[in-house]
Specification:
The protein is built from eight helices and eleven strands. The protein is of the alpha+beta class. The chain has two domains: 70 residues, 2-Layer Sandwich (Phosphorylase Kinase, domain 1), CATH 3.30.200.20; 193 residues, Aminoglycoside phosphotransferase (APH), C-terminal lobe (Aminoglycoside 3'-phosphotransferase, Chain: A, domain 2, Alpha-Beta Complex), CATH 3.90.1200.10.
Length: 279
Amino acid sequence: MTLPAGATDVRRVGGGDINEAFHVVLADGSEAFVKTRAGAHPREYATEAAGLEWLREPGAVRTPRVLEVADGYLALEWVDRGRLTPAGVEELGQGLARTHAAGAPCFGDFRPGGGAETRFGSLGLPNDPAEDWPTFYAERRLRPLARLARDRRALAPAGVEAIERVCERLPELAGPAEPPARLHGDLWGGNVMADAGGHPWLIDPSAYGGHREIDLAMLRLFGAPSERVFDAYQEVSPLADGWEGRVGLYQLLPLLVHALLFGGSYRFSAEATAAPYAR
């Protein structure tokens, strides 16, 4: 592991996922949450830090301030954990709507000259900009995942064929055209943290410009704090007609990621979710 120079009071904590996680006191006396691991990909932590700052810019939902970043670690401001209050649930839904509405320069990497891959755990996916959302979702997300699933036998051949058919049909399936939204990109319930005051914070992003329904579909799949989150979102920024029928389409992304990373029932969930959209 690698820690910031001069770090003291080092205590292992939860929340690192594939990383090791620590509470430390930095050389300037600041308390920090540090994630680190051997063999982290070059620029991985810098990309995450940039995503946190980008999500923080609109001032709609809190993200931890980046204190230090290097190839071997990421140090963030320490946030005392609590439980999300009803007011915090409202704040999350409304703030997420405003964050999405802050927009992105393109479908893909939000940084000038960008194109760096985005990471979902140990998986890296291309983030090169595309001219429209159906193209981006097919060529930068579903097809790369389907190829990996084929090579690793994480899906049955019929499942891979179904994903390919979904990609072909995306222009008609993806819903009305919308400008690129400012996405968290990996928005499951574990990446929404509450502070001691019950306010929501977004952590561990894989941020990019994309369709806002992606974030909402993933949050529905893996642990939304409350259905009230989605009602509060729609009060600020109503979704386009037919969104209910696109939830499964946009849950294909996290289901394929999980089929590759964890196997088991996720394989069958991904195949079953793809089937109706492949017809």
